[in-house]
Write a structure and sequence with these properties.
globular; six-stranded parallel beta sheet; alpha/beta; 11 helices; 331 residues
C-alpha cells in the first residue's frame, strides 16, 4: 500500500510517498481501506514536532478518515467486512489502509460521501464540546467566531445557529465572509492581517464591539490566537466565556486585567483529551451531531480534494491559512 510519511521534522515538502506492507488486524482490531482523509491544522503542527503529541517516526499525518472495513480481527464484534466507517485517529490517516481499534470508529450513514464523513467528527466534535461544555452557549446569546471560514469556524457558525445564538463571523477576506454568510452567520467582519500595532489592535477591538453590539459577545470562539485575541477579548460581555481553541496566528499573551473588568472566563478547549476522559459524554455529542446532520442543520463543506501524492499540498494550504471549509485527501 502507499503511505505519505513524515520521516524527518519539517514542513509539508518533507513528506515522502512510500510503499509499505498491507496491515493485518491484530486481536480487537479491524483493517480499514481508507477512502478519504481530512486535513486539519494539527497536521501542520505534528510534522513540525509542535503538536501536543509527538508520534515516533516514520508516521503518516492525518487525523480524520472515512473508509470501508476490509478485515476483522479476533474478538471484534459489531463490525463486518464492507461496513462504511468514519473516525478520528490522531494521526496515521494519509495511507491506503490502516489497522484500527473500533472504538475510534463511527458508522458512515448511507448517502453520505467518504469526503463528508472524514470531515465531520473532529471539527464538529471540537466545536460542540466548546460551545456547550465550555462556553455554555444558550439561545439568544451572541457568539463571536474568529477564523470563521475554516473547518472549525464554519462548524461554529452552524452549531451556533442550531443552538439559537446570534452569530458574528470574523474573517480575513470577502471570499471568506461569503462562505460564513452561506453557513448562516448573522453578521460578518473582514479584519486585516496581523501583526497589529497598538492603534490597529484598538481599531480591531472597536470593530468587534460594533459588530457584537453594546452588551458584548457572550461567547468568543477563537481558533486563531495571535494578535486577534486581545481585541476579541475586549469585546466580550460581562461574565462572557472566551474559548481558546487554537493558535495558527501564534500563542497570544492576554492582559488578565481585562478578565477582571469583564468578570469573564478564559476557557481552554482540548477536545481530544475530553473524548478520552469522558467517552460517554463525547458519544452523546456525536449522537447529537448525527441528528443535526440528518436534519440538514449542519453539513461539512468540502471545498477542495487532493490525491494522496499531493497530500503535502493540502497541508501547505492549511499552513498558509488559505483554506475555506475542509480540505480532503482521497485515496
Amino acid at each position: 500500500m502507499r503511505a505519505l510519511l513524515s520521516k524527518a521534522v519539517g514542513g509539508p515538502d518533507t513528506l515522502e510517498l512510500t510503499e509499505l506492507p498491507d496491515p493485518t488486524p491484530g486481536p480487537g482490531q479491524v483493517v480499514v481501506a481508507v477512502k478519504a482523509c481530512a486535513i486539519n491544522y494539527p497536521d501542520v503542527l505534528i510534522i513540525e514536532d509542535k503538536y501536543q503529541f509527538k508520534p515516533p517516526r516514520p508516521f503518516a499525518p492525518g487525523g480524520e478518515i472515512a473508509g470501508v472495513v476490509e478485515a476483522v480481527g479476533d474478538g471484534v464484534t459489531g463490525w463486518k467486512v464492507g461496513d462504511r466507517i468514519m473516525g478520528t485517529i490522531g494521526n496515521g490517516g494519509l495511507v491506503e489502509k490502516i489497522a484500527l481499534d473500533p472504538a475510534r470508529m463511527f458508522r458512515l450513514p448511507e448517502g453520505r460521501s467518504f469526503a463528508e464523513g472524514a470531515s465531520l467528527v473532529l471539527t464538529y466534535g471540537t466545536t460542540i464540546h466548546a460551545l456547550l461544555d465550555r462556553g455554555h452557549l444558550t439561545e439568544g446569546q451572541t457568539l463571536l467566531v474568529l477564523g470563521a471560514a475554516g473547518g472549525v469556524g464554519l462548524a461554529a457558525i452552524e452549531l451556533g445557529k442550531a443552538f439559537g445564538a446570534r452569530v458574528v463571523a470574523a474573517v480575513s477576506s470577502e471570499e471568506k465572509a461569503e462562505a460564513a454568510r452561506a453557513a448562516g452567520a448573522d453578521v460578518t467582519i473582514v479584519y486585516a492581517r496581523a501583526p497589529f500595532d497598538k492603534d490597529q489592535s484598538k481599531a480591531l477591538a472597536e470593530q468587534f464591539k460594533a459588530a457584537v453590539g453594546p452588551n458584548g459577545a457572550d461567547v468568543v470562539y477563537d481558533p486563531v490566537g495571535g494578535d486577534y485575541a486581545e481585541p476579541a477579548l475586549r469585546s466580550i460581555a460581562w461574565e462572557g466565556r472566551y474559548l481558546v481553541v487554537g493558535f495558527p496566528a501564534g500563542i497570544p499573551r492576554l492582559p488578565l486585567n481585562l478578565t477582571l473588568l469583564k468578570s469573564c472566563d478564559v476557557c481552554g478547549v482540548f477536545w481530544g483529551a475530553f473524548a478520552a476522559r469522558d467517552p460517554q459524554a463525547n458519544q452523546a455529542h456525536v449522537d447529537h451531531l448525527f441528528r443535526l446532520w440528518e436534519q440538514g442543520r449542519i453539513s461539512p463543506r468540502v471545498t477542495e480534494v487532493f490525491p494522496l501524492e499531493r497530500g503535502g499540498d493540502a497541508i501547505a494550504k492549511m499552513a498558509n491559512r488559505g483554506a475555506i471549509g475542509k480540505l480532503v485527501v482521497e485515496m
